[in-house]
Amino acid sequence: MQVEHKTALVTGGADGIGFACAKELLRNGAAHVAILDLATSPGVESVRKLNTEFGEGRGIFVVCDVTKDSEFEAAFAKTFEEFGGLDIVVNNAGIANESMWESMIDVNLKGVVRGTILGLRHLGKDNGGKGGIIVNTASIFGLEPSAWSPVYSAVKHGVVGLSRSFGATYHYEKTGVRVMTICPSFTRTNFVVDGGSDFGPFVDRGLAMKDIMQQPLQKPEIVGEALVEIIERGESGSVWISENSEPVCEVLIPKRFELIASSRMQN
Ligand SMILES: NC(=O)c1ccc[n+]([C@@H]2O[C@H](COP(=O)([O-])OP(=O)(O)OC[C@H]3O[C@@H](n4cnc5c(N)ncnc54)[C@H](O)[C@@H]3O)[C@@H](O)[C@H]2O)c1
Fold it and tell me: Looking at the annotation, which residues are catalytic?
């Protein structure tokens, strides 16, 4: 699917990677983008920037906490009302807080489940929709462990599992909605600068930050570009890594892992 003339909805779109995604969608010819974010976010200013750069009325800001069913439902309704349709849903909102790990599960996993179900319900051909695309933002730590952020890694693994499962042929043939995952690596946003991450009581924060600051940090725009490429050529169920400012790469996950025989069996 080309993003040209399409309408998109981006959760957590007021800042960081989400804002870069909204911007990149409009730069590539998307007709409209709805930014869904918290009332405390810089959403008003972010949409003003988008409309100044790409033209009045191209973007709207809808206050929506992805942990709240009613707000999320209303935000989808508002997007349809304003723009007359919806083609692309990007479930990107996330936090990094090991101390408040239950909130992290609520936002990063339950929020993505909620957004995926709402997306399928509104876009799915089985529900009278015209099909479309859902891209869920996981992380490189949705594919590998993170000693610094164990619960974050767990929820991001959950996002990968959810998106691969709803991305399966069975669902795609029914709904006409491609569900894909993007896994960014270290990206320069509030997450990694401005003390945006809380590593909780199990980790030496100084050590964690020292390690993270040694990683190559890419600009959020790189992830925005990756998103557009995935929308244009990714298959349903596919998982993509955006890291080190390199072109986005699809991850090859074997259908069945190779098993190592236990020593008992060898004897
Ligand atoms: N920055 C990185 O290094 C990195 C790496 C891998 C994955 N990610 C993922 O990318 C996504 C975006 O993160 P970011 O780095 O841009 O962080 P960010 O803090 O810059 O942006 C996150 C946005 O989500 C919003 N948000 C938070 N809770 C919300 C809620 N309950 N409802 C709606 N919006 C909410 C925030 O207000 C903010 O605008 C997250 O899912 C994050 O896990 C980030």
Answer: 152
